[in-house]
Structure formats: structure tokens, C-alpha cells
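Input.
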Amino acid sequence: AVTLIPLAALWAGMAASFAAGQYWLTALLALPTAAFLVRGFMIQHDCGHGAFFASKAANDWTGRVLSLLTLTPYD
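Output.
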């Protein structure tokens, strides 16, 4: 939640600013959005090593969901 909620909010902010023609704001929001996306990839990577949760199922489920955002295969 600490990663996905801000990522979704920043992503929505970028979409809104782009639709409003505020391209400078879109570019400015791209930096923190990219940082949260990298953070999501780091969590996905840790799940792949089984290091994020004690449960293998939780690691796999979280890693697969995050792989949809990072466009990186989990398996």
C-alpha cells in the first residue's frame, strides 16, 4: 500500500495534467512516478527470491501482480 497508492495517485496526476495540456507538470511528475515504479520492481524482485513474505504463495501472488506494472515477467 505504501508503494502502490502513491504510484496510482502520481500516475493519475500525470494523466490529468497531460489531458489538461500541462506538459511541464506531466514531466515533473514523471520523476517521482518512476521512483515508485522502481520501488515496485524491487519488491517484485525480492518476491522472486522468496525474501519479501514468509509464505511462498504470498510472494508469488505479489510478484505476479507487480509484474503487470513493471512489464517484467515474474516466472
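The mean pLDDT is 94.
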